[in-house]
Design goal:
Distance between the termini: 51 Å
Order of helices and strands: HEEHHH
Strand content: 15-25%
Low-confidence stretches: none
Helix content: 40-55%
Number of strands: 2
Mean pLDDT: 91
Number of helices: 4
Oligomer: single chain
Length: about 100
């Protein structure tokens, strides 16, 4: 059994149970594991109003070490919700959200 198979069968279900317990209390939950260099598992339960800090953790996990992917995720969020970021200002991302 590979580490990925072991994680998927033994760990991920337990983490999902913990995530569901947290959601019942109005909390977001995420876990991230590297079971081999460059191979990851993630289990997350995220409430709609999760903070930007929590979202950044999710974006970083999803980026798998790719900074461009992380910045693109932050840019997309900023375009929809606005931002106060010096770095995004340097990238010319509008401070106020897109207007319909």
């Amino acid at each position: 059994m590979t580490n990925e198979e072991w994680y998927d069968s033994k760990v991920a279900p337990v983490l999902m149970s913990l995530g569901e317990l947290c959601q019942e209390r109005g909390m977001s939950f995420s876990s991230f594991v590297e079971y081999a260099p460059g191979n990851y598992g993630e289990t997350s339960c995220v409430k709609a109003e999760a903070s930007i800090a929590f979202r950044m953790i999710l974006w970083a996990a999803a980026a798998h070490g790719n900074l461009d992917s992380l910045v693109i995720a932050a840019t997309k969020y900023a375009q929809k919700h606005g931002h106060g970021s010096m770095v995004l200002n340097m990238l010319k991302v509008p401070v106020t959200p897109d207007q319909p």
